[in-house]
Amino acid sequence: MLLQVQFEGEQKYVKLSELTFDAFLKEVLLSVCDPHDEEHYYDPESGSGYLVWRLKTIQRKTAEERSASGSKSPKVGGPGHGRRPFTSDDVPTNEDMEAAIAVLRYSADDDTVRAKMKTTFIYRQAMVNDANKSADVFLVFPRFLDTPGLIEQDFRLMFGEVTSNKFLERWPTTFKRKVMEESHGLKPTTELLDLMRNAESVVEVENGWDSDMSANLLLLHLLPPSAQGRKRPGKMSASQAVDQLIRFQKVGTSVHQHLDTITQSSQPYLLALGSTTSSIHSYFIVIDQHALPCKATSSVGAFDELFKAHFVFASL
């Protein structure tokens, strides 16, 4: 077997009678090295020498490069797949940023608010990803609390229109149908059957959530339950998980009263205001004693905004 090797910038050929490590090093020494320096390059008895050291160094560096490239590769799937950072033709200065934040604290003009929120997007993303500053995001940007649609705007700046529109576009034609199909294979329970009946209904049901919200809640039965944490060992049931996703409040009651009952931090969830669970008038996203109004009035639209809020406020 004839192998090509490179030594000190010069190409040479080594003939091997057998394909072993020792045979390879021996022939290399005979072909390219000074006989008086053979022990310096390779000692077959101890398995040491320059050539052994050099090969191990190359192997180590190759492994490190593969590890580094693997860690930098984007995760496949999810909204992060193919994500492009927000770019703007006009990069705001620190003075522009401070002025925009000052305007946002007092302005009630919708166009002005949306423009200034776009100007401060990069600053806000840095803030929500900083553990020391994220709790103050609604103090610095209070318009989240009274201007519907700002979560959607930030999400579009993060991921683009195609990704932002995908769920609502595919829900009625693809996603909802697949959820229903998979649910028929689950072990039937009273709660599961009620959700399936409501999800399949084409008219307003008397009791229970509307068709789209019922289908979304079926996901809690399809997905494996998660542990409740160290302080509360065990697995959370699907019925327990509903309160982590949506809560109902009778229309006419105070949203602030609901916020006052919150005693500990939790993941964002929907607060649905209506006469019954099947007839909801408005939705809010609750994040740590703050209620952000949803732009959507439909249950599937509110669910979409809740999903986006997790990314906008880095709560995943």
- Indicate the mean pLDDT: 80
Order of adjacent strands in the largest pleated sheet: 3-4-5-6
**Helix count from the secondary structure assignment:** 14
Helix- and strand-based class?
alpha+beta
Radius of gyration: 31 Å
Share of helix, binned? 40-55%
What does this structure look like?
- This protein is of the alpha+beta class.
- It is 50% helix and 11% strand.
- Strand 5 (279-286) and strand 6 (291-293) form a beta hairpin.
- The longest helix has 23 residues, at 50-72.
- The two termini are 57 Å apart.
Question: Which features characterize this protein?
Answer:
single chain, 50% helix, four-stranded mixed β-sheet, alpha+beta
List the helices and strands and how they pair.
Layout lengths: L1 E6 L2 E6 L5 H12 L5 H4 L8 H23 L21 H13 L3 H10 L1 H8 L8 H4 L9 H10 L1 H23 L6 H11 L10 H12 L15 H8 E5 L4 H6 L8 E8 L2 E8 L4 E3 L5 H14 L4
Parallel strand pairs: 3-4
Antiparallel strand pairs: 1-2, 4-5, 5-6
Helix pairs in contact: 4-5, 8-9, 8-14, 9-11, 9-14, 10-11
Short structural description:
The chain has 316 residues and is α+β, with helices and mostly antiparallel strands. Helix content is 50%, strand content 11%. Strands 3-4-5-6 form a four-stranded mixed sheet.
